[in-house]
Amino acid sequence: GQPDLVESIAVQRQVDLTGVTVINPLAEKDFENRVNQLVELRKSKGMIESKARDIMSNDFTYWGTLMMQNGMVDGMVSGARHTTADTMRPALQIIKTQPGHSLVSSVFFMLLPDKVYVFGDCAINVEPNAEQMAEIAVATAKTAAIFGIDPRVAMLSYATGTSNTGPMIEKVEKATALAQQMLPGVPIAGPLQFDAAVDPAVAREKVKGGENEVAGRATVLIFPDLNTGNNTYKAVQQTSKCIAMGPIMQGLRRPINDLSRGCTVEDIVNTVIITCLQAEQQ
Question: What does the H/E/C string look like for 155-190?
């Protein structure tokens, strides 16, 4: 943004900007270099100089993404004034996925009064197949562990175990088996309904076949599609009035996280802290 304007607003709101660097990309001496870099990175997709110049002049998310690409910063938080698509587009085009990852997914930390659940994927992948759902489960388990949450992963469906059949259940069964192979040291179980995943009493009634480390004790809950995941996190947030931290992105080479356009100052601070912790792990 414009340094004079930012500093003026900071004075009005009594915010101390000591140690803060305010960057106006249009006034930066390496602006032309960044335009040329974007052309070079995206020329195989038809990027030309005039288009790159327009992007770099009007979409500062690309500027921040290129700063990460060049090692000038370790992470980025965006979204207070941008859609999720606007935040993720340059990330996918420039930063791309980590080795061994075929997709980017997201999690929410659901901060309930007496516990924390990790929900995934609630923001990115609309209709993941079994292989993608397994990858989301593995990535989410690893994210949970980074933040000190012991991952016990429930693969969710509308039926528990063999109580029903159908394409969705078959997908979850396959995803569960794949995730168990990919991450053998972490307890992963499914298909499980939400109540059987988190309530020990319900789990005792619904889960057959003996001891299960996940049923009734899950900390990580993986949804079979975006419709289910997105609505469930919002339903829990709105009915319990808990804090939902996210979406936190996973699978990128460098951490980029998205904010809601209705975010609070606390949301921004929490997301910045999470981004810093992710950067330390990379």
Answer: EECCCCCCCCCCHHHHHHHHHHHHHHHHCCCCCEEE
Q: Residues 96-130: pLDDT tens digits?
A: 999 888 999 999 999 999 999 999 999 899 999 99
**Is residue 262 very low, low, confident or very high in pLDDT (cuts 50, 70, 90)?**
confident
Q: For residue 210, what pLDDT is reported?
A: 56
CA atoms of 255 and 74, how far apart (whole Å): 7
Q: Are 198 and 117 contacting, i.e. CB atoms less than 8 angstroms apart?
A: yes
Give the phi and the psi of residue 3 in degrees, each rounded to 5.
Answer: -55, -45
* The amino acid at 60: F
pTM: 0.85
Q: What average pLDDT score do residues 253-273 get?
A: 88
In residues, how long is the chain? 282
Reading the block at residue 112, the tokens are 């309930």
Tokens of 83: 């859609």
Cα–Cα distance for residue pair 188/50, rounded to 1 Å: 50
Partners of 77 in beta bridges: 257
Which own/partner pairs from 265-273 qualify as long-range (CB within 8 Å, at least 24 positions apart)? 268/77, 268/80, 270/245, 271/77, 271/245, 272/77
Structure tokens at 53: 């110049």
Query: Cα–Cα distance between 98 and 232 in angstroms, integer?
Result: 28
